[in-house]
Amino acid sequence: MGRLLLDTSKVSYEVAVNPVPKLDQTGQQKFDRETKQPMWAVQLYALSEGSAEVINVTVVSSVMPAVAVRQPVVPMDLEALPWVNDRDGKVRSGVAFRASALTAMETAAV
How do residues 71-100 score in pLDDT, each as one tens digit? Predict the structure, then answer.
């Protein structure tokens, strides 16, 4: 399936939970199959006019994203990855989100 790149221009994003290494079932950090770079998990608030939700985003980067809770960010190359899992006769599906980086936005001093 092709990449489903998302238009982030009408949505604002804020870090909900600090980035952590994305782990496999054995507790080891996952690495991207293509780039061999480490993967990081971060939760973001996605805020648009009239709605908000928390999304889990995997960031593939050689270093952990330097962002913190409540910090406004721009996810770079944000894509949606639909998935389906059929295990033990139970079908589950969802959408995973992936970005190449999180760019911190400048905030004005109050």
Answer: 999 999 999 999 899 988 899 998 999 999
26, amino acid identity: T
Q: What letter does residue 38 receive in the DSSP assignment? A: B
> What DSSP string runs through 14-27?
EEEEEEEE-B-TTS
Neighbours of 69 (CB within 10 A): 10
Bridge partners of 21, per DSSP, are: 40
Question: pTM of this prediction?
Answer: 0.86
Residue-wise pLDDT for 27-50, tens only, equals 999 999 999 999 999 999 999 988
> H/E element holding 44?
strand 39-48
Query: Strand, helix or coil at 53?
Result: strand
